[in-house]
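Input/output pair, single chain:
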Amino acid sequence: MYLDLQNKVAIVTGGSSGIGRGIAERFADEGVNVVITGRHEDSLKKVADDHAGIDYVVADMTKEEDTAKVVNYVKQKFGRLDILVNCAGWCPVQSIKEMTIADYNRAFDLDVKAVVDLTIKALPMILASKGTIINLSSVGATHPGINLSMYTGAKAAVENFTKVWALELANDGVRVNAIAPGAIATNIWTVPGLTAEQSAAHRRSIEQGIPIKKMGEPEDIANIAAYLASEQAKYVTGSVFKVDGGLAV
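Output:
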């Protein structure tokens, strides 16, 4: 437990499932007042109903009016913001031979532009609280894979934003870090049309390429996020934490 997190306020984008949900739930368990965002109210409401301390705003983070709505909601309800977690993202799997500029726009609008837009809008409250920003990157930012150019390119941009913002905001008492997950067991790995047996075989094939020989869980990322948000990490900024079972090495 990180007692200094109690009663703080956090925004976690993409908080209705996967890594975002794991981070939101861990923060709530630490006593943080969490506002999650996503496009589907049913899944957001389920998370909020299941965990005290979690609230939600239905928002498409690629729309500037929606990022403004999220920030205004937090400002009106809590009057402060201590932690911003930019987690929402999209991972297209497509060769450049098949890609169009529309595919690029979709990937970078959510994975990069939305991160910048929300951070700019939330920054006055983060500065006032001397808070922290946590961006979600990927091991692919430094170890790219075939057919992942849009995703790994976007995450490389996120890592560089993280480092520059850390430099720019250090004198203001604001820390900025990133987490770079490897293969984490979420629905991003679900392949349509596979039977349960085929899905299990698909997962095993992925795990064989990981030194630890297993996928991580959302809680593995949430553990790092809780640490980075706490005073235990008060001397940590501009860092990228790989949580990948040794995949990057």
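The first strand starts at residue 9 and ends at 13. The domain at 3-186+217-243 is CATH 3.40.50.720 (Rossmann fold).
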